[in-house]
Amino acid sequence: MFNRSRRNLACWFTLSMGSILVLFAVTTYYLRAEDKLEATDRLLYRKTRLMAASVEYELSEGKPQVDLERVPVLGSGTLPLGTELAYVRWYSSGAQLKRFFGEPPSQPLEISSGFRTVRSSDRSSEPLSDNTARNNAEKVWLRQLTLPVQEGNELIGYLQVATPLSDIRADLRQFQLALTLTMLVTLVLIGLTGWYLGGVAMQPIKQTYNQLQRFTADASHELRSPLSASLTNAQVALMLAAECPQIQPSLQNIIDSTQSMNVLVNNLLMLARYKGGLTPDLLKPVNLNLLVSESAASYQAQFDAQKIRFIICIPEQSIEVQADSDLLKQAVDNLLSNACKYTEEGETVWLRLGAYANWATVQVVDMGMGISKKDLIHIFDRFYRTDTGRVRGGDGFGLGLSIVEQVVEAHGGRVWATSVEHKGSTFQIELPIRSRLQS
Amino acid sequence: MKVLLVEDDRRQLMPLQTVLCQAGHTVDGVSDGETAQWLLSERDYDLLILDWMLPHVSGVQLCEHYRASGKTAPVLMITAKDTTLDKVTGLDAGADDYIVKPIDIVEFMARVRALGRRSPICQGDSLSLHNLYLHLDMLTVERQGKVSPLSSREFQLLEYFMRHPQQVLTRDQIEQAVWEWGSEIESNAITVLVRKLRKRLQVVGAAAWVETIYGMGYRLSPPDKTDI
Question: pTM of the predicted model, to two decimals?
Answer without folding.
Answer: 0.58
